[in-house]
Design a protein that fits this description.
CATH topology of the largest domain: Rossmann fold
Number of domains: 2
CATH superfamily of the largest domain: P-loop containing nucleotide triphosphate hydrolases
Radius of gyration: 22 Å
Strand order of the largest sheet: 6-7-8-3-9-10
Strand content: 25-35%
Distance between the termini: 35 Å
Number of strands: 14
Largest sheet: 6 strands, mixed
CATH architecture of the largest domain: 3-Layer(aba) Sandwich
Length: 313
Amino acid sequence: MQVLQVNQVTKRFKDFEAVKDVSFSVNKGESFGLLGPNGAGKTTTIQMVSGLFPPSSGNIEIAGIDMVRQPKKGQGYLGIVPQEIALYQTMSARENLAFWGRMYGLKGQNLQKRINDVLEIIGLADREKEKVETFSGGMKRRVNIGAAILHNPELLIMDEPTVGIDPQSRSHILETVKKLNQEGMTVIYTSHYMEEVEYLCEKIGIMDHGKFITSGTISELRETIGDRCRIVMNFSGDHQHEEMKKTLSPLVPEQDLAIKDSELAIFHNEPQKVLSELIQTVTGAGYEITSVEIVEPNLESVFLHLTGRSLRD
């Protein structure tokens, strides 16, 4: 059963197309990772799915509800964890949860029970009466997540929920999301941290320049590069990328090569055989190599191969 269906969605801002003809679906109980470098269109897509503004064309359905025609009804099935903290700083954790619970229509004993349950889930039952303004960034984000799951949403949307927090809170959030998904909650998760998506998500979609490039399980995406490793070479000198590509063209097809600033990435199924010649070619062109690493095939390799740039570009 599909919880979310996005059909040929485009979003224009005057003359700029932020999202271009995007289609994908998320099944009930699935954890879906949405990846893309900065400016890829991820957040705009999430905002349209959340009903914050309509697409310029195309259609979005949540639990069979048309989000263009009935956004308020569809939002009742959603829990949203935005990039920015959406809490009242001078209120306590419990007071914040009570406020958001009432916004979702919860009241009385049902509301109090859900608040108690959620405080346990986010690990803040012993801090419930303290003002949010006294919390660390990680604790605030945990309260943010608590507010989003109070009403047991059909679909939980999390837009980079671990940015700028301490490792302990990050670990707690990942474990919480993993448990919620294992218990049946459908999750859409965007992140700048590839390892988070690998840990949490069974299916992944990759966006770049407003377009949906591909989607599939991690193993399916890895098949796009087969058993090819990634040679990562850092160099000093002028960053003449086109000259570097021309220098390496006899050795490496352009589609198997990516350059960002002073980092060169090359995909090859026998890296040890070509490494010596690559080093000689790069140094012979006047560049000084500062480090070389061979990376086994992983999700980051797939992403770099498909987009030609790193997630944090």
